[in-house]
Amino acid sequence: MTENDGLLAGAGRDIDELGGFSLEIKSDRSPEDLRMNRPGENLRRKILSLPDSPGVYMYLDRNGTVIYVGKAKRLKRRVSSYFNRHHDITRTNLLVRSIVDMRFIVVHSEEDALHLESAMIKEYQPRYNVLLKDDKSYPWIAVTKEEFPRVFMTRDRNLDARYFGPYSNQQSARVVLQLIRDIFPLRSCRHALDDKGIAKGKYSLCLDYHIKKCQGPCRGFINRDQYGEYVTRVCAILRGETIELERRLLADMERLSAEWKFEQAQELKEKYDIVRQYNAKSVIARTDTAELDIFSYVADESGDMAVVNFMHLHNGAVIQSINLEYRRCVAESREAILSMAIAEVERRFSRSFSEVVVPFLPDVLFEGVKFICPQRGDMKKVLEVAMKNATQYLKDREKQAEALDPERGVERLMETMKRDFRLSVQPRHIECFDNSNIQGTNPVASCVVFRNGKPSKKDYRHFIIKTVVGADDFASMKEVLHRRYTRMMAEGEKLPDMVVVDGGKGQLSAAVEAFDEMGIRGEVALVGIAKRLEEIYFPGDSLPLYIDKTSPSLRVIQALRDEAHRFGITHHRDRRSKGQTVGELDRIKGIGPATRTALIRHFKSVKRLKEAPLSDIAAVVGNAKASLVHSHFHPSDKE
Fold first, then answer.
1. 122, HSE (Cβ side, Cα atoms, 13 Å)
2. CB neighbours (10 Å) of residue 576?
3. So what's the pLDDT on residue 14?
4. Is 399 in contact with 392 (CB distance < 8 Å)?
5. Comparison of pLDDT for 606 and 244, the residue scoring more
6. What CATH number labels 7-129?
7. Which residue of 135, 381, 443, 461 could cross-link 465, Cys pair, CB 3.0 to 4.6 Å?
8. pLDDT 10s digits, 477-521
């Protein structure tokens, strides 16, 4: 390939033939060209001479390094689109400003372009390309081609064996292996069995034989034909034919039972129950299609990472499920990422597709492949399962990242809350208020504090309502907010980023009045939460906000509200109980504070004190005071 010309290439062309780029390239782009994303004169001539054909293009920087590889159905139109406007995505603008030169390759079809693009991305690892973040090999289940084959899990694809899989993780492969081990007595030893060794008794029986997990091929206790029948059935399971195995076991069990061979029938029944239990977990749909391939797509909240889940079903049973993780660089479309994932599965696992279920159409037409976007029915249910797999993978990756960097999880939560509640800053410090009273008695309020989305119990506060008479929640809310924030301002403490009041429009209006009077409205974000439908109210907005029930933002607000309610109720209950206790004992003449404390400490409650006999009370406070207490609670006993 020359510096200025493109190549005509098929999708199968070896990437090594394309060579590398390391020469320094001089740019003729002026500062104005860079600012307006316009190409220089040399680059402009190349773009104008591009063909309207499918192909792959490569952008190079001043050092001759490939910084981006892309595919196009029409090369000229696609490449021109980078240089005829200012892009909304900052990273795309940075890419365009770094382009000094370009190369292109013409291919026969858009699908060929997709495969060649994938190969070139793997070769050059361009910094601005979406990259498949997958540095692991998936586990497979191997059935060796020995005289007495073994079945085991491996990541090595160079063995003399038949391979089944791949499996998304080791656990799913182990489940299948356990099913096989529970049903078929295959050997697990690594002996290279041969007729001479078996005849000479060269091999000793292992524990598996004694616990009836193996029938002893090493000592000739089972012939090749019988053992081969087991292997044939194992391969059928690994191909996903467990439904047929379940039917055969049931038929054999019923036949043996009819022949009065009940012990053998019981052995088959145990195996039948194992297969049926496995099928109940692995068969997710009863579709008309024997073989079905499904791709689903899920992106994280930031849009920087996307996960494509691929599942292959045989007679409704999942026999293959893998997740492909992509890191997006210049806001590649979801259709483009889905196309890349389909091509990756084709290449890596030597798969060919005829009918594929997808959530939306890819941006490449694959020859001979029919794409289905189901809206209802069994295929829709299957697609939803694939979506759940991709979503769970995304959640697991986020949890792993947060475990390594806890601040990352906090940052993500704070950004989510900032967006959901329309805040100008992250709500690192949130306070929530709740009132408690029973028919106006013992009115109290609670204030709980969350920092970085977690309770900060050392900052919790109780308030006894002082200026409000009766059950007036609105006036009580105003009093508490005034007392809380005038004191914080007087002591020079930093005000919270957000205040939540437990209640609807009424409590929120009272809070707004308090904030106006203190002059902090607009400085501190204020919201109210109504209990019935978890509605979020904002000052000056008559319509509530309904946050997604699964949103972490709503979970934090609910936790705040519940904690404020718990904290307030506990304090109110303690005050009411204390008031009742002190009020009852205070009316007994001759009983002072020390005696009251001793009685309550011993009997725990006034009720138990009332029921106690005179002798028990006397044991605590003496005969004289015991007589006063007992006479107060039992006036009819006086002589």
1. 16
2. 16
3. 41
4. no
5. 606
6. 3.40.1440.10
7. 443
8. 888 899 999 999 999 899 999 999 887 788 888 888 889 889 888
Structure tokens at 533: 């439908």
Cβ(143)–Cβ(238) below 8 Å:
yes
Average pLDDT, the chain: 79
Structure tokens at 524: 């501190």
Rounded Cα gap, residues 162 and 151, in angstroms: 10
Question: Are 291-401 and 420-574 equal in CATH topology?
Answer: yes
pLDDT level of residue 428 (50, 70, 90 thresholds)? very high
Instruction: Give the model confidence (pLDDT) of 218-229 as tens digits.
Output: 888 888 888 888
Residue 439 main-chain phi, psi, to 5 deg: 50, 40
Token pair in block for residue 595? 């005696």
Residue 98 contacts by C-beta under 8 Å, 6 or more apart in sequence? 59, 61, 67
Backbone φ and ψ for 404, nearest 5 degrees, come out as -80, -30
Q: Please name the residue that has the structure tokens 């090369």.
A: 75
Residue 436: strand pairing partners: 444
Residue type, 449: V
> Is 420-574 a domain of CATH 3.40.50.150?
no
Every domain of the chain and the residues it spans? 7-129, 140-240, 291-401, 420-574, 587-637
User: What is the spatial distance between Cα 547 and Cα 535, in angstroms, rounded to a whole number?
Assistant: 8
Q: How large is the angle between the packed helices 110-124 and 334-348, nearest 10 degrees?
A: 80
Burial class (CB in 10 A: 0-12, 13-18, 19+), 513: middle
In a 13 Å sphere around the CA of 596, the CA atoms on its Cβ side amount to 16
Query: Token pair for residue 302?
Result: 């930031």
The residue type at 298? V
Q: What angle do CA 384, 388, 392 make, to 5 degrees?
A: 170
**Residue pLDDT, tens place only, 243-298:** 667 777 788 788 888 888 788 788 778 777 777 766 655 555 555 566 788 899 99
Instruction: Provide the pairing of β-strand 498-502 with 66-72.
Output: unpaired
Task: Please give the structure tokens belonging to residue 496.
Answer: 């919270």
SS (H, E, C) 200-251: CCCCCCCHHHHCCCCCCHHHCCCCHHHHHHHHHHHHHHHCCCHHHHHHHHHH
Amino acid making up residue 386: A
Pick the residue with more confidence: 329 or 359?
A: 359
Rounded to two decimals, the pTM is 0.56
Fold entry, domain 291-401: Nucleotidyltransferase; domain 5 (3.30.420)
Class for the domain spanning 587-637: mainly alpha
Structure tokens at 455: 């309770």
Nearest to 514 by CA among 477, 564, 559: 477
The DSSP bridge partners found for residue 446 are 434, 462
